[in-house]
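lol forgot to send this yesterday, sorry. struct tokens for the thing we talked abt
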């Protein structure tokens, strides 16, 4: 099990240029658990994650890692503890899959240290875990969107950090590979105690795979806690403006959201009247 690092915000205000997205956010990420950040489009999900990862500078307040402001920490020291998969990573030109995944080892290498057997093992584990071993010698720009996404996740895994932040890790993946990636993150969490924080669009996958949900909307945190407490019909209405029913997932026994659309509802009324 890894050391439980404390990642938290205190009265955080964040946004872009003069546009404030989140204001007065105070929260603590549960160590050793999987946290999913959910919310509507432009609600501030990625803004929160990007500020936690110090890609964005807070406009006010602070993000703290073990009591230290992350925006004042040395980059290498932070990268040894916190790994990040951004929403739209920049693809280096002409780089192979193995070389990209190997870049995840850079924070663990000193100025004069060389590539080691431990680095080889970390890269091999990451490739195997993501099912990308057969792609190791391929150029990244020859891969499909789904293959690239798995390679980026492999790079984040190769970093072998105690905290892993992922912004929409299931982007570009079909449903089978979405489940594979989320199962992988659960395996990582259970085997190594890695604290995982991820932004997800799919409420049902978030409720199934996360221990802790953070619902973002209207400039702040609308609810947080276990999925059974957070994912309610009232919450979905307030955050997403969507009428729904919450049922029990027959496989995971976690809450599942069933949206109520106009057409199916109308058809049901017609059938009842016939």
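and heres what i got for the seq, position by position
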């Amino acid at each position: 099990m890894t050391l439980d690092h404390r990642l938290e915000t205190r009265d955080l205000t964040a946004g872009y240029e003069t546009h404030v997205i989140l204001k007065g956010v105070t929260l603590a990420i549960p160590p050793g658990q999987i946290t999913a950040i959910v919310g509507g489009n432009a609600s501030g999900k990625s803004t929160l994650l990007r500020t936690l990862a110090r890609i964005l500078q807070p406009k006010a307040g602070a993000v703290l890692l073990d009591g230290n402001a992350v925006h004042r920490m040395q980059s290498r020291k932070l990268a040894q503890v916190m790994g990040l998969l951004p929403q739209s990573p920049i693809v280096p030109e002409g780089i192979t899959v193995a070389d990209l995944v190997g870049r995840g080892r850079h924070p663990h290498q000193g100025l004069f240290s060389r590539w080691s057997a431990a680095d080889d093992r970390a890269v091999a584990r990451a490739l195997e875990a993501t099912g990308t071993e057969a792609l190791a010698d391929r150029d990244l720009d020859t891969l499909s969107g789904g293959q690239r996404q798995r390679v980026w996740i492999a790079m984040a895994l190769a970093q072998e950090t105690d905290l892993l932040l992922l912004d929409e890790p299931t982007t570009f993946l079909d449903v089978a590979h979405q489940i594979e990636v989320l199962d992988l993150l659960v395996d990582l969490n259970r085997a190594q105690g890695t604290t995982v924080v991820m932004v997800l669009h799919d409420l049902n996958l978030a409720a199934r795979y996360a221990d802790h949900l953070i619902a973002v909307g209207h400039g702040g945190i609308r609810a947080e806690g276990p999925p059974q407490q957070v994912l309610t019909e009232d919450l979905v209405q307030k955050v997403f403006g969507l009428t729904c029913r919450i049922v029990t997932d027959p496989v995971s026994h976690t809450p599942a959201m069933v949206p109520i659309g106009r057409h199916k509802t109308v058809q049901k009324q017609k059938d009842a009247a016939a």
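The mean pLDDT is 89. anyway ping me if u want another try
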